[in-house]
Amino acid sequence: MAEPTNTPEQSAPQTERGNRKERVGQVISNKMAKTIVVRVERRFPHPRYKKVVTGYSKFYAHDEKSEAKVGDRVRIQETRPLSKTKNWRLVEVLERNAELGPVAA
User: Fold this and answer.
1) Is residue 104 assigned to a domain?
2) Based on the structure, what is the number of domains in the chain?
3) Residues 83-101 pLDDT 10s
C-alpha cells in the first residue's frame, strides 16, 4: 500500500522563524546610505547603590527607503548580519520629530 506524501503545502501552517528582538529608540544619525543609527535607552538600578541610572546603547539599522530622520522614534528588529556592524532593520517609524518642520524658503 502506498503511503500518502506530505508536501510542504499540506504540512502545519507557517509560523514565524524564531523570536526576534525588538527595540524602540531615537534616531541620532541618518547620514549613511540606507543606514540609521538608533540610540536605545535602558533604565536599571545600580547594582550596589540602587539608584536608578540610564544606560544607552547604539545600534546600526538598515533603512531601505531612507524614511527615518534624525529625532524620530523608531522600532527596530534583529535580523541576519547585513554588514560588519549592521544586524538590525527598521520596522516602523513610531513618531516623527516635531521640531524639524518644513523649511521656509
Assistant:
1) no
2) 1
3) 999 999 999 999 998 776 5
